[in-house]
Backbone:
């Protein structure tokens, strides 16, 4: 089985590892991993140049399944690979991996839902949003 690389992903971002991210064991605290994943998601979900989010709506996380594969060490940076697994009516299933120095240190699957700000209920994604998201589907996602 080939090892995953950042090049596998249609969307790529990075984040700096801060000293404050470390814990008593000297590595990055596990609570920081979801923040790195968030960096990879918000760069395309909330980008004003990309019409993904509908007016009067927000994205909320419905589920997050995160697997810790290795430590992240300070100092350094983390590369974040992001791709789409499935686009639903109002939901998006996202797969991400975190890399440090070329090594995969975590993977995660997140389901986010677009909700109407006034009612807090699911709100359908626009056809424009679905088309954009479709460009970032991961190969062999089966969807």
Residues:
């Amino acid at each position: 089985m080939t090892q995953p690389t950042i090049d596998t992903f249609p969307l790529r971002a990075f984040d700096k590892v801060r000293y404050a991210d470390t814990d008593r064991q000297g590595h990055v605290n596990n609570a920081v991993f979801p923040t790195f994943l968030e960096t990879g998601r918000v760069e395309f979900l909330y980008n004003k140049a990309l019409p993904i989010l509908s007016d009067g709506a927000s994205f909320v996380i419905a589920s997050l399944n995160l697997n810790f594969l290795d430590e992240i060490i300070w100092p350094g940076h983390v590369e974040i690979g992001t791709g789409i697994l499935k686009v639903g009516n109002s939901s998006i299933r996202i797969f991400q991996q975190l890399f440090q120095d070329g090594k995969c240190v975590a993977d995660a699957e997140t389901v986010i839902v677009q909700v109407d700000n006034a009612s807090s209920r699911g709100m359908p994604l626009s056809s424009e949003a679905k088309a954009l998201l479709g460009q970032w589907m991961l190969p062999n996602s089966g969807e």
Notes: The longest strand covers residues 103-116. The beta strands are 11-17, 57-68, 76-87, 91-100, 103-116. The chain has one domain: 6-135. Residues 6-135 form a domain with the Thiol Ester Dehydrase; Chain A fold (CATH 3.10.129.10).
